[in-house]
Q: What sequence folds into this?
């Protein structure tokens, strides 16, 4: 019953031929990813229309700058690029971790919030809120303040995740084909409702709405980080507590329960986490696709599927990849910029097709 | 002590188990036998706390239906009839899932030693999904052994629930795995094993529960349960039981049987 990958990656095979213990390798990869993330972060602060060196920015940040940056550069770096980089790290980590978590819960390497309609549901939630906040949702809007949009996106994502799970999973088994097809249908449905709402939108609302289509980090502000952080950080903090359950779930729900996991409660927690992280990302940056599927997949090839390492490594690599994609988005058509979703789709979709080609058997369930 | 009284289970609209009484004392190897669909796996799932049942089932005096998964996990390990793995773990990583601290006090559980007991020494670095069916079954058993490494903990017996542990093993490994189960019982633990092999049952079981259509048809020592009449009634197959001259234990050869 090959529910997923049946072959070992060649590189990993040579590494752990003798004792099957990949934890040392995983720790090394984690450490390397931390270093790469720090470098990418300062590189992204330094790159752009106004060129400063990453080293200068680093010295300035830790208080050793000695005034090497002039005032304009300081404003650009600390008021424009810094919030954008921080947001990029949060979103990248959130997308990759929700992908990895969802794959673990659905026991399926193709489950990704973007692919199976969860992001579309979150988008519908966010758009409903923007369009209706002056009308029927006014009381909710005043209650939640800036957290209204993320919370609405979270709710939309939660509803679609739950529906997806109900539809595609029976007796603890997820059918890949059903999941993907149900995801297409749910995504289309959410898209249709979103379209109707966009018709009702006025001009300022329309401007707010345009970036939902492709996803972008443009217009990142500290406020947006503040909007997303309360939903994303708890998920990142909960990661270490989810790892053991996700590992046990790889054996199936019954065996996970026999190992002492309260499977139903864990799945509830995991679904809420996925919806929170996805919802928050969609709320502030629109639908950025494929990070959640590419990052965990690459890492499983490198360090194996042990979620104690896979989840933090996904957070780190997701952040790195998003900062990287954002740098490309800003450079490639400078001084204008591409929505980052175009970059992640252009790189991620072929990668996804490659996974499918290698694992064609995956859909024959 | 594992004790079940009047267990009834309905799945969908069908009543799968009716009025099952079963006792598996510590130190004994109890086997459940019966034809396909007679309810063996369902019984084990009920006793593992996987499905709801009516009646009463207790493990060491604790009501199985009301106990949290982690408390049950500390007292018994379960080897399922079949397993699937959704991601490419190595053999070591799979067995280690049984030893993780926090599940239970797994004591001195040791991956290498568990693999040695199931005759898979040196397989730590192999990918689970690249193993043969019998090897995978033995890896799963090693994982379960790690979970209840000490057969007795704090004066209480722990249990192995094994659903057809030797179904895909060759003759040598069948004997080897049955020895592992018997050793667990000899050291004071309890074993409840579902088997299809009547001869292994005769060789290893201290007690036998014979199921037919969701009811206990016969229960007792192997020599008392494995009789011509019982086997004919339950398996609807013309089998005759013989005895080994040396020690008087029974064996069943299917050669002359008509179906
Ligand atoms: N989920 C279910 N819904 C309805 N009926 C079920 C379900 N699972 C099992 N059954 C039925 O319950 C009966 C007992 O099944 P069970 O799996 O316990 O048999 P078994 O004795 O373990 O058989 P085998 O020797 O083939 O493993 C069978 O008739 C089966 O069809
Ligand atoms: Mg069975």
A:
């Amino acid at each position: 019953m090959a529910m997923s990958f049946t072959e070992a990656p060649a590189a990993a095979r040579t590494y752990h031929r003798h004792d099957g213990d990949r934890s040392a390798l995983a720790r090394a990869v984690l450490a390397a990813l931390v270093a790469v993330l720090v470098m990418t972060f300062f590189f992204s602060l330094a790159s752009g229309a106004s060129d400063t060196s990453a080293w200068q920015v680093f010295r300035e940040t830790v208080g050793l700058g000695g005034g090497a940056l002039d005032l304009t550069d300081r404003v650009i770096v600390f008021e424009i690029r810094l919030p954008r980089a921080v947001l990029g790290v949060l979103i990248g980590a959130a997308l990759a971790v929700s992908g990895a978590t969802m794959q673990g819960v659905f026991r399926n390497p193709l489950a990704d919030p973007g692919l199976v309609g969860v992001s579309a549901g979150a988008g519908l939630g966010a758009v409903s809120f923007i369009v209706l906040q002056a009308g029927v949702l006014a009381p909710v809007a005043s209650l939640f303040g800036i957290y209204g949009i993320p919370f609405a996106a979270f709710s939309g994502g939660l509803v679609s995740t739950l529906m997806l799970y109900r539809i595609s999973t029976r007796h603890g088994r997820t059918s890949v084909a059903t999941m993907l097809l149900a995801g297409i249908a749910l995504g289309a449905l959410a898209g249709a409702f979103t379209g109707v709402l966009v018709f009702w939108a006025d001009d300022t609302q329309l401007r707010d709405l345009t970036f939902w289509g492709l996803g972008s980090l443009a217009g990142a502000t500290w406020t947006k980080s503040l909007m997303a952080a309360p939903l994303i950080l708890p998920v990142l903090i909960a990661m270490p507590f989810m790892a053991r359950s996700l590992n046990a779930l790889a054996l199936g729900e019954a065996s996970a329960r026999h190992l002492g996991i309260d499977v139903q409660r864990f799945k509830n927690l995991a679904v809420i986490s996925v919806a929170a992280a996805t919802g928050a990302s969609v709320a502030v940056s629109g639908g950025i696709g494929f990070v959640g599927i590419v990052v965990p997949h690459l890492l499983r090839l490198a360090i194996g599927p042990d979620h104690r390492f896979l989840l933090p490594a996904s957070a780190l690599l997701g952040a790195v990849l998003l900062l990287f994609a954002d740098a490309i988005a800003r450079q490639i058509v400078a001084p204008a910029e591409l929505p980052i979703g175009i970059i992640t789709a252009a790189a991620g979709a072929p990668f996804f097709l490659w996974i499918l080609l290698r694992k064609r058997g995956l859909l024959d369930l | 002590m594992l004790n079940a009284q009047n267990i009834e289970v309905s799945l969908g609209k069908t009543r799968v188990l009716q009025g099952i009484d079963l006792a598996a004392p510590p130190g004994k190897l109890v086997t459940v036998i019966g034809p396909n669909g007679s309810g063996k796996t369902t019984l084990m799932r009920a006793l593992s706390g996987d499905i709801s049942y009516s009646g009463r089932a207790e493990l060491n005096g604790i009501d199985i239906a009301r106990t949290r998964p982690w408390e049950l996990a500390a007292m018994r390990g379960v080897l399922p009839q079949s397993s699937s793995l959704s991601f490419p773990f190595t053999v070591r990583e799979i067995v280690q899932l049984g030893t993780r601290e926090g599940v239970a006090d797994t004591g001195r559980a040791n991956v290498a030693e568990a693999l040695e007991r199931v005759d898979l020494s040196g397989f730590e670095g192999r990918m689970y999904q690249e193993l043969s069916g019998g090897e995978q079954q033995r890896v799963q058993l090693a994982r379960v052994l790690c979970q209840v490494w000490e057969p007795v903990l704090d004066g209480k017996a722990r249990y192995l629930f094994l659903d057809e542990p030797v179904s895909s093993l060759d003759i040598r490994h069948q004997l080897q795995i049955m020895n592992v189960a018997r050793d667990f019982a000899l050291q004071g633990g309890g074993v409840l094993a579902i088997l299809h092999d009547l001869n292994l049952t005769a060789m290893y079981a201290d007690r036998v529960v014979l199921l037919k259509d969701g009811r206990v048809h016969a229960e007792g020592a192997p020599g008392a349960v494995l009789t011509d009449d019982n086997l004919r009634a339950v398996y609807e197959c013309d089998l005759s039981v013989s005895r080994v001259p040396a020690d008087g234990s029974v064996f069943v050869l299917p050669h002359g049987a008509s179906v």
Q: What stands out?
A: The mean pLDDT of chain B is 92. Chain B has one domain: 2-253. The first strand of chain B starts at residue 2 and ends at 11.
